[in-house]
């Protein structure tokens, strides 16, 4: 099973952790706010450490694009 999914009509099609309405962006925002993995898991007891890692890996893949500079 894919851990990160996009489902039409769920959170406006944003990537979420499978079986939840928790978006990848929410997980990233929590890390950005200084929360630890343990804090995130406490806030969302329905997800696992593997789900958190999947969200981070998904974000890394999606945002790894070459930078195009103007000439």
Arrangement of strands in the largest sheet: 1-2
CATH superfamily: Winged helix-like DNA-binding domain superfamily/Winged helix DNA-binding domain
The number of helices is 3
Q: Briefly note the structural class of the backbone.
A: mainly alpha
**What would the CATH topology be?**
Arc Repressor Mutant, subunit A
Number of strands: 2
Shape: globular
Instruction: Domain count, please report it.
Output: 1
What helical percentage do the residues reach?
A: 40-55%
Give the termini distance in whole angstroms: 44 Å
Let me know the largest β-sheet: 2 strands, antiparallel
Describe this structure in words.
This protein has one domain: Arc Repressor Mutant, subunit A (Orthogonal Bundle). It is 44% helix and 6% strand. The protein contains 3 helices and 2 strands; from the N terminus they run E-E-H-H-H. The chain has helices at residues 24-32, 37-43, 49-63; strands at 4-5, 16-17. A two-stranded antiparallel ribbon has the order 1-2. The termini are far apart. The relative contact order is 0.17.
